[in-house]
Structure formats: C-alpha cells, structure tokens
Design a protein that fits this description.
Elements: E1 2-6, H1 14-19, E2 23-24, E3 29-30, E4 38-40, H2 54-61, E5 69-73
Antiparallel strand pairs: 1-4, 1-5, 2-3
Amino acid sequence: MYRAHRLLQRGMSLAAVLSGPKVARAAAVPIYNAVADSQAGVGWDPQWLEIDIAAGIQATSNGQANHGWRLVSVSGNSNLQRFRSNDYTADPTLMPKLTIVYTND
C-alpha cells in the first residue's frame, strides 16, 4: 500500500524526497504534506499504480503550487518495487501518466 503526499517545495533532490524525513533538517521546512491525498495498492506483476489524487488536483486548481507527489510505503514487506519517473527515457510508455476526469457536480 502506498500513500501519495503532495510535495511542498520545488527542486527537491530525489534522494531527499525518497529518504525523508518529512522536514528538511537544514531549513526545518516541511518537504511534503503530512496528510496524504489518497492511497492505493499494487501487486508484484508489472502494472500501473493508480491513486486518486483529486484533492491535490483541486488544491492546484485553487492556486496552490504543483510540485508533484511523494509515494510513501505504508504496508507490505520490504521487497523492492520500482517506479519510473518522468525523466525515464528508455521506454516512454512506462513514464508516469496523469489522467484527469472532469465531472459536473
């Protein structure tokens, strides 16, 4: 199971995002939102992880900056799972996708 937390700063290094902590030591500034937008699970066979980040998209629509999301593992074992980032160019079909579906509420 993974939770998606909105990043609060631009230009965070991948190492800082992956290793945490949620507060950068030098600046004592949160690097990601403590409350997750949503969570979802994924199996071991190659597949997409789909997380409903509607809350984050709505926040962006309301004027908050979009710096991306941090995936935080919250359950399961310690086996390594790999996720591709938007700079993965070996196979563009494996780059992350953002799909937005609009509804009239």
